[in-house]
Amino acid sequence: MTTYVLVTGAWHGSWCWKRVREALTRQGHSVFTLTLTRLCERSHLMSPDINLETHIADIVNLIRRDNWRT
Question: Which of 14, 20, 30, 63 could disulfide-link to 35, CB 3.0 to 4.6 Å?
Fold first, then answer.
């Protein structure tokens, strides 16, 4: 099956993918949802230093943390 990484935009968190994640999981897919630094439940990490590079690192770290292989 397929592995999906679902990333929200501004003003949302990984919670907004709940129904989609459940539907894809029922079909046998692997699904990872991510809230980017400074958004929603990660808003406590707010800093003027957060930028696109930070958000790219969030996604890369998710992949590294779960030790994905191609």
Answer: 14
What pTM value is reported for the model? Answer: 0.72
Phi-psi region of 59 (alpha: psi -120 to 50; beta: other; left: phi over 0): alpha
User: 10 and 64 in contact (C-beta within 8 Å)?
Assistant: no
Q: Which residue has the tokens 């943390």?
A: 65
- Token output for 8: 């929200």
Whether the Cβ atoms of residue 8 and residue 14 lie closer than 8 Å to each other: yes
pLDDT value at residue 44: 64
C-alpha separations of 27 from 3, 21, 30 in Å = 11, 10, 9
Locate the domains of the chain by residue range.
3-65
Q: Is the pLDDT of residue 70 over 60?
A: no
